[in-house]
Design a protein that fits this description.
Elements (H helix, E strand, L loop, with lengths): L2 H5 L2 E7 L4 H12 L5 E8 L5 H8 L4 E3 L7 H14 L4 E4 L8 H6 L4 E5 L11 H8 L3 E8 L9 E8 L6 H25 L2 E4 L2 E4 L9
Parallel strand pairs: 1-2, 1-4, 2-3, 4-5
Antiparallel strand pairs: 5-6, 6-7, 8-9
Helix pairs in contact: 2-7, 6-7
Bound molecules: 5-O-phosphono-beta-D-ribofuranosylamine.
């Protein structure tokens, strides 16, 4: 992270493909003062008519549609990196971004990409995690905010929030219950990263020891 960043708020780049409820929860946390030390530098969607992108426009946030359909993954990611760098983004937050990132993208923001996934990882990575949880018969489900690495839904876990699976739940009712927790979890996780009080130690995101230097 640059010295300039240490003087100002951490700049978030939000990537989304759909309704954007996690993005809106983050924006609301910042507005209400619950999430401090960060600002939304850009909202980028790979889907031109994503409701989340429209919401960003209505909020007057810097936004862009970089449509991925029909474009090679590498070429699209190059455009995304350029856009994020031009907005001096420090931390990329995937918020319902339904496209795998290339290794080049991950390398462009080392340990600076977060994702939220609607399961208690490492259980149920990939699509339809809530349906997978119902099908498996688990009694506890939840969400995970994690750093992004080159494997799907695999990077170091920042935090998780759990919910019960109730009698009669289906994928939809469970998804609704998990989503409420996602909206709390993402802001809390961003706050932890922005605080500079935690560091990645192996697979753990843990409190920095007293006296250990902060990242630059
Ligand atoms: C959420 O369930 C999130 O965990 C997953 O995609 C969904 C996005 O929802 N990655 P929204 O667009 O933030 O409302």
């Amino acid at each position: 992270m640059s010295e300039a960043r240490l003087r100002g708020p951490m700049r978030l780049g939000i990537l989304l493909s759909g309704r954007g409820s996690n993005f809106l929860a983050i924006a609301e946390s910042i507005k209400s003062g619950r999430l401090k030390g960060v600002e939304i530098a850009a909202v980028i969607s790979n889907v031109a008519d994503a409701p989340g992108l429209k919401a960003a426009q209505e909020l007057g946030l810097q936004n862009a549609a970089l449509v991925s359909k029909g474009r090679k993954r590498e070429e699209h990611d190059r455009a995304m990196i350029e856009c994020l760098k031009s907005q001096r983004v420090d931390l990329v937050c995937l918020a319902g971004y339904m496209r795998l990132l290339t290794p080049a993208f991950v390398a462009a923001f080392p340990n600076r990409i977060l994702n939220i996934h609607p399961s208690l990882l490492p259980a149920f990575p990939g699509l339809d995690a809530q349906e997978q949880a119902i099908a498996y018969g688990v009694k506890v489900a939840g969400c995970t905010v994690h750093f992004v690495d080159n494997e799907l839904d695999h990077g170091v876990i920042v935090l998780q929030r759990a919910v019960p699976v109730l009698e009669g739940d289906d994928g939809h009712t469970l998804a609704d219950r998990i989503l409420k927790e996602e909206h709390l979890a993402y802001s809390e996780a961003i706050g932890m990263v922005a605080s500079g009080e935690y560091e990645i130690k192996g697979r753990r995101f843990a409190k920095r020891e007293a006296g250990s230097s902060r990242p630059v």
